[in-house]
Design goal:
By secondary structure, the chain is an alpha+beta fold. It has two domains: 162 residues, 3-Layer(aba) Sandwich (Beta-lactamase), CATH 3.40.710.10; 130 residues, DD-peptidase/beta-lactamase superfamily (Beta-lactamase, 3-Layer(aba) Sandwich), CATH 3.40.710. A five-stranded antiparallel sheet has the order 2-1-9-8-7. Helix 5 packs across helix 9, helix 6 packs across helix 10 and helix 8 crosses helix 9. The chain starts with a helix and ends in a 5-residue tail after the last helix. The structure holds glutamic acid. Glutamic acid (GLU) binds next to loops.
Length: 304
């Protein structure tokens, strides 16, 4: 498969969509990012790397960090995790309060904000140095120690984080948060603020693509069955209220973030990360989603 040629072709084909959508601006620091950027990088299980565009420019991974949090929580908690959250698609916005209230403080899944805030609480309870350990787990996955938090982005989000604060308060009311709410929110926003390039993100997701091997990075260990199940959750819950559309158009498990990034995997074949800040109304990158749709169409490779 000539992935380089296909990525270059895909990059040309998506140009008509280059001004569609707009970047997230509810986090003031993200509003400053130049929206007209695009990068894509693909790593094969066999060890090859292909890239086009701004594949080495770092961006705010935002909710893609929830995949790393889930890997850590599954390793630390095993199936106990599912006592505190579900694994069903939410069918509502990622920051919805209504569903959380109706379901009495049990988030639908780990990839909506409420689920990730509970995972943040778990990491705070289980780890001696959660901020350092989260980052060093990400370093071990992507093989680059310079990946870091952007504290300005985290502070900027905290300054407007009214809805996430409401979610955390409701979780606490329903006894699904053990730690101090402010401490949980501070760490949650910090996790979202991690900056990575497509190349680093794609490399980090290669371990999820390689699900037939068990997974061990630092002290985080997952069985191949747990990795497979993580992929199932990415498939059903990874794209906000558009997981069905993404499955229909692209057909790969993955996770997107409001920074405009999407990381996806083709199990036992490749991982891919794409970034372009302009988002559709559901919060997914317009160019990113289009590029992945064309990638799976042109390679005729998808899980379906
Ligand atoms: N930090 C963002 C928030 O909580 C993450 C959203 C996202 O990327 O989905 O609103």
């Amino acid at each position: 498969m000539n992935y380089q040629e296909i990525l270059e072709h895909v990059c040309q084909e998506i140009q008509p969509f280059s001004k569609e959508g707009k970047q997230a601006d509810y986090i003031p620091a993200l509003a400053k990012v130049n929206p007209d950027q695009f990068g894509i990088c693909l790593h094969t299980i066999g060890g090859e790397t292909f890239a086009v565009g701004k594949a080495t420019t770092r961006f705010s991974i935002q909710s893609i960090s929830k995949v790393f949090a889930l890997a850590m929580c599954l390793s630390l908690e095993g199936d106990e995790l599912w006592k505190r959250m579900g694994k069903e698609p939410s069918g509502t916005a990622f920051n919805s309060l209504i569903q959380l209230e109706e379901e009495k403080g049990i988030p639908r899944n780990p990839f909506i904000n409420a689920g990730a805030i509970v995972m943040t609480d778990i990491l705070l309870s289980k780890l001696a140095n959660p901020e350092e350990e989260f980052l060093s787990f990400v370093h071990s996955l992507c093989g680059t120690n310079s990946v870091s938090y952007n504290e300005e982005v985290a502070r900027s989000e905290r300054s407007r984080g009214y809805l996430n604060a409401a979610i955390a308060n409701m979780l606490k009311y329903y006894h699904n948060i053990e730690n101090d709410i402010e401490r949980v929110l501070q760490f949650y926003f910090l996790m979202c603020s991690v900056e990575m390039s497509c190349q680093e993100l794609s490399k980090a997701f290669l371990s999820f693509a390689n699900h037939k091997k068990s997974f061990q990075y630092n002290h985080i260990m997952l069985t191949s069955s747990q990795v497979k199940r993580m992929n199932a959750i990415m498939q059903t819950c990874g794209f906000y209220d558009e997981a069905g559309e993404f499955s229909y158009l692209v057909g790969l498990p993955g996770k997107s973030g409001v920074g405009g990034g999407i990381a996806a995997i083709y199990p036992m074949r490749y991982s891919v990360a794409v970034w372009s800040p302009r988002l559709n109304p559901k919060g997914n990158s317009v160019m990113g989603m289009k590029a992945l749709e064309l990638l799976t169409t042109e390679t005729q490779e998808s899980i379906f």
